Every structure is written in structure tokens, then in C-alpha cells.
Amino acid sequence: MQSSISPSLSHKLANMGFVCACLVVFIHLFLPTPELSTQPIRHFLDAGICRIAVPFFFIASGYFLAGHMDELGWWPREFGKRLHTLLIPYICWSLIAAGDEIFRYLLKTQIFGLTWELESPFSAPRLLRILGFVPLDYPLLVPLWYIRCILLFLCITPLLNRLLSRTRTLGLICLAVFFCLSVIPGTQRATPDTSLFFWQGFFSLSGLFYFSLGLFLRHWAIRVTLSRVTASILLAIAIFCYALNIWEPWMGANWLAYPRFIAIPIALLAVWSLIPSCPWPRWLTSLSFPLFLVHFPIIDLYQTIQVYIFPLSNSLPPALNYLTQWAIVTVVSLLLALALRKWTPRISAVLFGGR
After folding, report:
1. In terms of C-beta density within 10 A (0-12 exposed, 13-18 middle, 19 or more buried), how is residue 153 classed?
2. Mind listing the pLDDT tens digit for each residue in 147-163?
3. d(Cα 341, Cα 73) in Å, to the nearest integer?
4. pLDDT in tens, 226-263
5. 324 and 54 in contact (C-beta within 8 Å)?
6. How many CA atoms, within 13 angstroms, populate the side-chain half-sphere of residue 321?
7. How far apart are CA 213 and CA 164, in angstroms?
8. What Å distances lie between residue 105 and 112, 257, 258, 300, 302, CA to CA?
């Protein structure tokens, strides 16, 4: 096993993590009145290149965890660490999301006198969803589904470690099986309250594949060096595969949904090759996890203000509005995380798991 990692690889992982956190913001943006002019850029970003972000986080989680698997008593110790770094932020941000929804409920119904289309935030089913206790639905703070998956994967990590670390051949066979399993429920977009959602948004088979890939890469290092030209060509191929997936609903060809399963690892490899291994500012790369957690409530707040107080969506071209939302949400989220870290370090350590 590769017990330690080089400084250049550590910097590359940190840089990639920050880039992927920024890409996650695009995935959760919403335009009240999407128009044709926004579709190409949204398909390229939201339904395209941004889809490498969460798979990379699964790979990184498995990769860092595997670095401790040769230590005596590693599983109880690492599981306990992640209760602090993942479970406590999960609970805290679930409660923050509940407060955010109650605030928007009161703002909409009591201040603006409008109706609330969703289920009451005080109902029992809604409260269960707040903490992600509903297996067929997202947590109220949607990005927390990833943390929920990681916590579930931790429970079976000793088994995964046995399968992936015994021999390289057995590890590759297991990865191939996990990849095939991830394709089966993934050709359709699962909606909550369906059995398909369980395998996509609760115990994600795609996430299991990439998490296991991270474990495998730490046990059996694979070094692939690509030139910038080769990486750019691979990225273009991945974009073409994403485009095939986008055309599937209009062309009625079900097979067009499959190329994206190839596009994600190809795009990951290409972007990874293009990411520099020189260190970016530590204060910036250390904000990857805070940005991942903070951006969703900021999007909700921004869109509430935009729609009911300052209708920015009516004053900007849709494509520019889309990019403006991303820029504002990203900058505000980073500034908020920095402010919490500077003025309330203890609260920040709890909310962001010590990161």
C-alpha cells in the first residue's frame, strides 16, 4: 500500500477538491424561467462536466481512508474520527436547513402573504426528512446525501478492504462488478419515493464504485501521465458523450443514456491531468468542504430575495443570470465560511468538522 503521499499529490488533491466544490454549486442552481438560451451552457455545466465533482469526492474519501488501513485497530478509530468530521456537521447543517426553511416559510406566508406550496416544515414527515431519515428522499439540505452515503459505506469498509486489498486482480474484478451494478439503476433519473432512488440517492451504487476505486488506488497505485493535449482530447470525448446523454429524451434512443457512465471517468482523468500540482493558497483549498455545505442555503436565500424582493431574473439575460447566480453564491459562501472561521473558530470547527 502507498502509506504516504507526496506533497505534489497532496496539493493536486486539494486543488481538485476546491474545483469540484465550485462545480457542485452549478449542479444546484435553479432558474425560475429557464429559456432556450441557457440550455447549452447548463447542459455543458450542470448535466456535463460538473458531474465529475461528487464522484471525485467519493474517490478522495476512499483514498484518504485507505491510508490508515494497515494500522492496528484502524476501523474503530477512523469510524470515530468521521463521526466528528462528518456526522456532527451532518446534524448541524440539517438543523440549519430546518431553520432556513422555517424562515422562508414565515417570510413567504406572513410577510408577503403568499401560499406555501410545500409540506409544512412543522409536520412529522418533513421533520424526518430534515435529518435524512427517509431512505427514498434527499435530506432537506440536499448535498448532505453524499455524507449520508459515506457514513453508510463506512459500515462496510472492512469488507470492501478485504476484497480490494487481497490481490490486484480480485480488486479489479470487484471494481468491474461495482461499475456494472452502478449502471443498472443509473440509466434513468430517479425521483424520490421510488425504489430506484434508494440505489441512487441513499445507498448510491455509483458512489460505492467511486469510493471503492479510491480504496483500490491507495492499495494498488496506478500512475497515468497525460500531456495537456491528450487530456484536452479526452475532455472533448467526454463532452461528446455527455451531449449524447442530453439528446436521449428528444431522440428516444435509450442507449444514449449509457455513454455518460464512460464520460464521467474519462472527464475525471482529463480534468485531474489538467489540474496543477503546485500549491494553491491554503486558505482557499481548505474551504472546499465549507463551500460544499454552505452553498445550498445561500442559493435558497438568494433565490428568495431575487424572486420576491429584487427580480434580477427579469433584468438580466437568462444565461448571464445563471452565471451571476453561481458567482454570487460561490463568493458569498466562501466569505461566510471565512468569517465563521475568523470570528467564531469554535463554531466553525463544529460546523465544518474541524476543516
Report:
1. buried
2. 999 999 999 999 999 99
3. 33
4. 888 999 899 888 888 777 766 655 555 555 566 777 88
5. no
6. 22
7. 9
8. 10, 38, 40, 12, 15
